[in-house]
Amino acid sequence: MEKRKLTREQIAQRIARDLQTGDIVNIGIGIPVLVSNYVASDAEIIYHSEQGVLGMGKKAKPGEEDPDLVNASKEPVTLVPGGSYSHSADSFAMARGKHIDVAILGGMQVSEKGDLANWKVKGVKLGSIGGAMDIAIGAKKIFIAMTHTSKSGEIKIVNQLDYPVTALHCVNRIYTDLAVIDVTRDGLILKEIAPGFTIEEVQEVTEPKLIKAEDLKVIEV
Amino acid sequence: MEKRKLTREQIAQRIARDLQTGDIVNIGIGIPVLVSNYVASDAEIIYHSEQGVLGMGKKAKPGEEDPDLVNASKEPVTLVPGGSYSHSADSFAMARGKHIDVAILGGMQVSEKGDLANWKVKGVKLGSIGGAMDIAIGAKKIFIAMTHTSKSGEIKIVNQLDYPVTALHCVNRIYTDLAVIDVTRDGLILKEIAPGFTIEEVQEVTEPKLIKAEDLKVIEV
Amino acid sequence: MINKTFDSIDDAVADIADGSTILFGGFGGAGVAYESILALYRQGAKNIIGVSNNPGYEHEGIAKLILHDRLSKLMCSFPNNKQSYVFIEKYNQGKIDLELIPQGTFAERIRAGGAGIEAFFTPTGVGTEVAIGKEEREINGVTCILEKAIRGDYAFVKAKKADRWGNLVYNKSGRNFNPVMAMAGKITIAEVDEIVEIGELDPETIVTPGIFVQRIVKRSGL
Amino acid sequence: MINKTFDSIDDAVADIADGSTILFGGFGGAGVAYESILALYRQGAKNIIGVSNNPGYEHEGIAKLILHDRLSKLMCSFPNNKQSYVFIEKYNQGKIDLELIPQGTFAERIRAGGAGIEAFFTPTGVGTEVAIGKEEREINGVTCILEKAIRGDYAFVKAKKADRWGNLVYNKSGRNFNPVMAMAGKITIAEVDEIVEIGELDPETIVTPGIFVQRIVKRSGL
């Protein structure tokens, strides 16, 4: 089989397959924003946006923008029928109170225990937390979407974080251009692997020891 | 001057004179419920009711009752124009957060330091707190409306409470059938006295030493 | 398609196990999910820990559950009332436990449960019997006691309208504890006067977003 | 007659003293009380402690105050953004202090301030740099840190409509921090698109009851 790393779009596409009707989903910046493009059109997924929008719809068409209806990246969006508005304390009650089913977030580092770093690069003085910490501890499941290694080849799935922590023990599943990995009490389970890659090749760019899933398969995209 | 204790209605009437337009007022059970009858008709007083009504109006007329619009005693009431509804946590945020200007409450005992007992009689096993404790610590000013002594002649303004405490250091002013008394750091100041009574007569039924106000006057009712 | 509607209130309460903690909305008779409570009575679950501002009046509401010894404990602010004679008698007989909670603390502990706040410091109750056994601390110059979150396995709420996502609006002071209980119930069952089409409720006026509601039943009115 | 309306936004901010803590509503550009901020700029108060989710973009909103060294400290969740270059430069020059707060904790600390809750235990931030110097405790099996209430001497909120009692409704996600900031401001100044007659707002849809609002000004739109 030809070796083929997943594109950003393919990572998003793979994640979309793990969402189901009724899921309330918070979407982070980066690869996660692409996920909704791949959700089946008949699936009713409810998107939560931290500034107090539940049921966020598509981006607003030109001429239909309302400066008071924006997504977390300040872009004009819409509300779907059934959507609602909340103030920020209630919006984060949804997160912190474990009412959000899935948060799909970017990652800078993820540790073997599921610790997440995604808000500030190492050694920098100033970073923005935004809603990252609240959502990482709050959603029932945390999916991380990221490239397996950084552009410079730095390993991102590590034994111990050395980037500033976002939240401890929070990640459930990691989706990269090379693999789908579950974070479990027993360790990291390699569930799916990119076309043409070997377990050894994925292990080489993953610091903790990967456990091969009994039903390990090739990522379908 | 003829000795004349104030009636319950006169106590309420006297309290009403201390309210002014714009005051947000919480009303307890007993004498306090009579106060609104004596507020000037052109004064805009906003009544807060603990179950989530701000701007509570008069009792509902027969045939206009809504079982979902009741006062704290479960009687059907109305809402005035400008009124609004809140859930119970927000309603008590109004109290605890010091947004209510005045609470007018009944009292079983008040101490020299302004400690209040008004939720349970002494020695009884079961009592109802309701909103009493939250409102007593929350309103900016606490006015107590009560008879100066109990029916059996027991003194109610005491050095130390021996009834179950509602809240400590909370009472600002006491209105009785005999006197208007301010609770201050220096002690209890006798501000007004019922027609025909002497300071000594009021002192006799008041355990802590009363301080005569420089401008002591007869209660006008 | 998301559809949280149950045709039968009996189906909506069928899985409630003995020993469950249930949050019951309502203040006086306003905003009480009476039909859900009757269904729970028929269903038979025992040793319920009830969280309700009051214990029901005469034989109505949760008073009926208490009368039949179905509640092992009640957390409430207003247990003692002439019409609450069912509770008072059971309490005096030692057949039901009571945790007496100031009403504002009661509402806030439930909101905390729904909001993932595990505990908070409040000035309410300092120096009273409510403070016994609780940590006391001065914060920002205010003496406070520490109060912990309350959560329910179920919440029984009453609303005016719902849509199939579980968005709710209430009627007047029937709102009371219902929105915070909806937040704090693992499974929130909303008993409503009317179920409307999705998109029919004005998004600016929705008080309880559907995220907090798992099951909806229209009142039969019987 | 109660009338909280000010004809001029300059009058509404005239008494703000140097060193005041001010809560500024808004998320991105949504729900920002821009005219109130400009009036504060004209008014001249210095050493303001600003509480705002972000430090303004380019030279807009509180970025203008920061540019002119009028804020001594900013409490916020999102200081670092390409368009927040004014804050970043002042921060790097040591001209403004920063308290960095997770957004949910930020909103909840402000609500706590408004609700008379002095502090609360939250799981957000455990094990992160946000937890440094804060008490950590396990409650109900969840590791938490203790976070304290935030209050403002003033709150600048933006709403869609008000009546003379100060009842407010908002527009869409322009709501954001405004309702909790209105609660937590000792003097809350509401900048609104429209002032309507008393009784015109549906009581079921009022988001911020007038009890939380002290001053109202209609936007000039200039």
TrEMBL record, chains A, B:
GO molecular function: CoA-transferase activity
PANTHER family: ACETATE COA-TRANSFERASE SUBUNIT ALPHA, KETOACID-COENZYME A TRANSFERASE
Keyword Transferase annotated: yes
Keywords: Transferase
InterPro entries for this protein: 3-oxoacid_CoA-transf_B, CoA_trans_fam_I, NagB/RpiA_transferase-like
Coiled-coil residue spans: none
SUPFAM superfamilies given in the database record: NagB/RpiA/CoA transferase-like
Protein name: 3-oxoacid CoA-transferase subunit B
Family: Belongs to the 3-oxoacid CoA-transferase subunit B family.
Superkingdom assignment: Bacteria
Automatic annotation (TrEMBL), chains C, D:
Origin superkingdom: Bacteria
InterPro entries linked to this entry: 3-oxoacid_CoA-transf_A, CoA_trans_fam_I, NagB/RpiA_transferase-like
Keyword Transferase annotated: yes
Keyword field: Transferase
The UniProt record lists the keyword DNA-binding: no
SMART domains in UniProt: CoA_trans
One Pfam family cited in the UniProt record for this chain: CoA_trans
UniProt GO molecular function: CoA-transferase activity
Protein name: 3-oxoacid CoA-transferase subunit A
